[in-house]
Amino acid sequence: MGVANSAAPKLAGKTAVITGAGRGIGRAAALCLAAEGADIVLLEKERSSLLETSGEIERLGRRALPLEVNCTDEKEVERAFAEARARTGSLDILVNNVGQSARERASEFCQSNSEVWRFVLDVSLFSTLLCSRQVAPEMRSRGSGKIVNISSHVAFTGDVGAADYAAAKAGMLGFTRSLARELAPHGVNVNAICPGVVETRILDLLSKEAIEELREAVPMRRFAQPEEIGRVVAFLASSDSDFITGQSIIIDGGQWMI
């Protein structure tokens, strides 16, 4: 996949936990962090992609711990982090990547229902709080740690038909800033990445016309590759970002500019 590795890995000796690590951005983040020397704990519901990504990490010469987990289930999350800590020692990096829009159940808000809202908020926001709660106290006590939350540029654009997803992803940004302020005195960095459209399997659900319409809306006239998001995750997980916290980095080819 063309992940560059430096002569002196920036994350050697670190352990990273990545949610939704089997495919797409999660997989790319896992491989980019592994290429920089980190060992990876992969949390994923889908067993086949979990094991596939785990194997790729091991081929990079890093340790991988694949754990089948539903990141919206508090008990499962607690068990997974307890196992990760027992088998790897300290957890230095957390990437909250798991999330999902309503997809085929998406609709304008006036036709939507609370069952769908709760699903989207649960998987895209509540999971972030659950997983962060597992590492934040340890990081604060230790005086170091990196938390990277994968939000979305939809938190800024507020797309029609995505009110629940926009609410969840905007909620992640508020959470990022609040936790960053709480943990900053303790040497822990908390930041968010807000991708635009990324070339993942989600595009398979769209028509050719819809894909072209999305592409035309991007000034760079293309979509992001998962690795382009993964490399920013690696930057935020490294010491290069030690004086950056509470920030939201938009990666969407210029579609939304601040």
Strand elements, count: 7
Q: What low-confidence regions span 5 or more consecutive residues with pLDDT below 50?
A: none
> Any idea of the CATH class?
Alpha Beta
> Helix-strand pattern, N to C?
EHEHEHEHEHHEHHE
Portion in strands: 5-15%
Straight-line distance between termini: 31 Å
Taking all Cα atoms into account, the compactness measure Rg is: 17 Å
**Within the largest sheet, what's the order of strands?**
3-2-1-4-5-6-7
Assembly type: single chain
CATH topology: Rossmann fold
Describe the structure.
There is one protein chain. The chain is an alpha/beta fold and 258 residues long. The protein is built from 8 helices and 7 strands; from the N terminus they run E-H-E-H-E-H-E-H-E-H-H-E-H-H-E. It has one domain: NAD(P)-binding Rossmann-like Domain (Rossmann fold, 3-Layer(aba) Sandwich). It has helices at 24-35, 47-59, 74-88, 114-142, 154-157, 163-183, 208-216, 226-237, and strands spanning 15-19, 39-44, 64-68, 93-96, 145-150, 188-195, 248-251. It has a 7-stranded parallel sheet, sandwiched between helices. Helix 2 links the parallel strand 2 and strand 3 (64-68). Helix 4 packs parallel to helix 6 (163-183). The chain is globular. The two termini are 31 Å apart.
Layout of helices and strands, plus pairs?
Elements: E1 15-19, H1 24-35, E2 39-44, H2 47-59, E3 64-68, H3 74-88, E4 93-96, H4 114-142, E5 145-150, H5 154-157, H6 163-183, E6 188-195, H7 208-216, H8 226-237, E7 248-251
Parallel strand pairs: 1-2, 1-4, 2-3, 4-5, 5-6, 6-7
Helix pairs in contact: 1-8, 3-4, 4-6
